Amino acid sequence: MKVIAINGSPRKNKNTATLLNNVLEGAASHGAETELIHLYDLNYKGCISCFACKLKNGKSYGKCALKDDLAPILEKISTADAIILGSPIYLHSITGAMKSFLERLVFQYLVYDHDHSSLFQRKIPVGFIYTMNVTSDQFKAGYEAELKSIETYIKKTFGSFEALIANDTYQFDDYSKYVAPLFDEKKKRKVKKEQFPKDCQNAFDMGIRLVEQSNI
Questions:
Q1: DSSP character for 206?
Q2: Contacting residues for 172 by C-beta, under 8 A, at least 6 apart
């Protein structure tokens, strides 16, 4: 089986990417073939409303017609057995790169009927990792509701959705070099030391679950 991870962070070796790699390690430990794709390496756009994926009897019905760096990635995902997405939270939402990716991924399968049914032919497990500076309480109070539509569309498209949330993450290598009085660097360091390893273990366990769910 194949598990594909999509990194929506511009950084390839920080919090989001680290957690995605842990998910893939968990999946690989149960026999999965894995691949990590960095969106910021690709040249692509979001949906351009050409509606080729909705055209009756069209050659691209149910499939994004845009030909750019994202096209082969969407093709890979069409045959994947599980997907894990990851994004830091910018301005209360996922990154622009991840949003554009999801527009292209989901809209091609979305049917304009009363149920918003899906043209994706299978049910596969999908996980989403969110990383952010804010605490868990702050996330629940002001961020969680804004991400619900993402969960709804992914679940309708692929059949399942699971989120892993890493709060209060360590953003800078050296906080003294940046203007960031909002954050307590000592507290951040403590979270990095004590909580982030638990987040990594939770990510590893998520990878195992993705494999187990895809085999049901």
A1: H
A2: 178, 180
